[in-house]
Amino acid sequence: MLHFNERSWVAGPSHYEKNIQNTPVGTSVFQVNATDPDQGVGGSVLFSFQPPTTFFAIDGARGTVTVIRQLDYETTTAYQLTVNATDQDKTRPLSSLANLAILITDVQDMNPIFTNLPYSTNLEENVPVVRTNFSISSFVTVHL
Ligand SMILES: [Ca+2]
């Protein structure tokens, strides 16, 4: 019986979207799933990014997307990736594409900064201990 490679992979949506925060390198952030009803190599799917990206890697067999470079919201707020899935049919490999948008969520990563350093004040002798002479203020820089 002859078997033809008839179908490319079938994913759920053709567009994925994922929100992540400043995620350490090596973290898995997304899972692409695909099914190919063909049997044998014609139904065995390999994933890749097209074109490749230096910030994310995808496990060819499993479809797991991993961070491979430090992400910084201040530099890039979103990545538009295209996932290619190709079956392994030797004579007529079929492939499909899906979009994957990875949105970087800002996390506050700045420390409070004291202003008007150094602090000093003059005290008179015999100041009652409950008296407050000055207050220390700080502010947080917020990057939007
Ligand atoms: Ca197939």
Automatic annotation (TrEMBL):
Name of the protein this chain belongs to? Uncharacterized protein
**In terms of domain of life, where is this protein from?**
Eukaryota
Organism field = Dallia pectoralis
